[in-house]
Automatic annotation (TrEMBL):
NCBIfam families: cas_Cmr5. The chain crosses the membrane at residues 38-55. GO terms for biological process: defense response to virus. It is found in: Cytoplasm. This is CRISPR type III-B/RAMP module-associated protein Cmr5. Belongs to the CRISPR system Cmr5 family. Signal peptide: none annotated. Its main location: cytoplasm. Keywords: Antiviral defense, Coiled coil, Cytoplasm, Membrane, Transmembrane, Transmembrane helix. Gene3D superfamilies: AF1862-like domain.
Length: 143
């Protein structure tokens, strides 16, 4: 049980650090809105389908300048890719990442998907706490 607690604590720390990178970005509101749906998308549609959806929304294959919408989905892709590399030892960019996931056994695919959902729940919780629509203020109380 100690290993599990340590693993969850590390995931929470990593999720917090990811949000530290987002909190001062112009796309933070879009990110907060989009990230909250991703765990359910993975649960309902599967990780591979969700990644394909994220690729489309992030316009990953287009060289054009990206707006807030695309930047937020690109950050979500980067978070998922980083998680898969660090925690699950699954690497790859774009199609290679999808191929690596497709080559997993059904059992491994389900386990990895559920662990990723668990990790993304931390990201969602931290985004709700850290990405305020108002300016991030120290103390946060009006009075």
């Amino acid at each position: 049980m100690g290993i599990m607690k340590k693993d969850n604590r590390m995931k929470a720390i990593d999720a917090f650090e990811e949000l530290e990178q987002v909190k001062n970005k112009d796309f933070k509101e879009k990110f907060k809105s989009h990230i909250k749906n991703i765990p359910m998308y993975i649960y309902t549609n599967g990780l591979i389908s969700t990644l394909a959806f994220i690729f489309k929304k992030a316009k990953i294959y287009k060289k054009e300048q990206k707006g807030e919408e695309e930047k937020s989905y690109l950050k979500i892709y980067e978070i998922i890719k980083s998680y898969l590399k660090y925690y699950e030892e699954i690497e790859g960019e774009k199609e290679q990442l999808l191929k690596n996931l497709l080559n997993l056994s059904s059992s491994d695919y389900r386990k990895i998907s559920l662990r990723l959902i668990n990790y993304l729940e931390y990201v969602v919780k931290f985004s709700e706490a850290m990405l305020n629509s108002d300016e991030n203020t120290e103390g946060g109380q009006n009075g």
